[in-house]
Amino acid sequence: MNRLLPPLLLLSCLLLSACATNPVSGRQNFVMMSTDKEVRTGAQMHPQIVQQYGLYNNQALQKYVDRVGQELARVSHRPELNYRFTLLDSPVINAFALPGGYIYITRGLLIYLNSVDQLAAVLGHELGHVTARHSVQQQAAAGAANIGYTIGSILVPGLGSAGVSDLFNVVSTGILRGYGRDHELEADRLGAIYLARAGYEPEAMIDVIRVLKDQDSFAAERAKAEGREHQGYHGLFSTHPDNDDRLHNVVGTAAALAEAGPRKGLDKSFLSRLDGLVFGDSSHQGIRRNNSFYHKSLDIRVQFPDQWTLENSAKQLTARAPEGSAVMIMLSDTRPENLTPLQYITNTMKLKPLAGHQSLDIKNSPGASIQTKIPSRSGIQVGRVSVRYLGETAYIFLGVPKDQNQLSTYDSEFLEAARSLRRLTPAEAKLAAPLQVHLITANSHTRISQLAEGSAITNYPEAQLRLLNQLYPDREPVPGQTLKIIR
Ligand SMILES: [Zn+2]
Hints:
By secondary structure, the protein is an alpha+beta fold. 38% of the residues lie in helices and 20% in strands.
């Protein structure tokens, strides 16, 4: 699975060449950092991860994820590290590890799992990357490959760390790249061993890879139906088919360590823990529907251009034009008392208009917008900055084309998005409520297509229900089976 490696870390690890012994292979590896350095690096990055994704606000579920992870860590090759397993509040399907024992799973991945063994498989795989010190090795490689790569972070005073965010550097570079086939296989092998040692089913490793592969098939179907090109969604899939002989070998070897017994399969007590889990966007981070963004507690709605994709994090909303040719980010700040929106741009953000400014005053909401040069880590980027005040909040919109000469192509879209900000209508307030998992028991008449008709899922409800219950692409539940539905 992917891991997240912020750019600062990339640069800093170019300077590292401490010797350390690989705890799994026992060999010396010159690219490794010391355990101390690993732990410090993880501890330094952890707050940034939490800030970017947000913690899922459910103590019982957080504790449960950590407990399962700790059981595996205890029987791992590096039991002495201080591990922390965290459930992130993101609809994105992901799990990753930082150096030093920080391991993450998103609720977006958790919701597709159906047994505690599968959860243990995800955590065990990431744990394998940590115990084999893959992240550290990969960092050096990724760093070398990324020398000279342009990092499009915006550095604007007054926006704090929220403004320091990658614009064009998210998925396509080494930053979120997988580890490569050998490392993935090794993580699976180690994960399977830890599963066996801790009393879980090593075969769950294969189940999880199937879950991810089904997601990829669904994404491909969907892209085809919508006339888009399917971009390999998870680095893991290209390197890691579930019919991989080597994978079955390593899992089989681990399974031989485990006590013989029938496979447990679906796990009702695990599923009951997922009752109420948020599906898709959560209301406190805002809900995306088509290309609109609704935020209930802020009481706002914003419309972004068709075909753009929206990514939501705890701190900001990012909209990307097709092929990443332009990016818009939306942030919020407390409305300053004595500054107009234009003064906010020029005084607080310290940005100067290239030409004049445009008023964005709309009813009781003052606003201003300028074309400007935005300082970023890679130099100056030409773009548009708009600020709108609504209630007690200042909303900041930064729009930047990837090609500096293309501002005129995207300029009206940058402006339109800033103009579209307004209060929710009563009907939209309903849209701004999150969807959640509920559990039902299938009987002999239960069909997924029927459940899909009454589902609150707007896009592809039948496929989604099958994915959630591991019945993709066309299986039906057996009578008595506990099913996740979405309401
Ligand atoms: Zn992995």
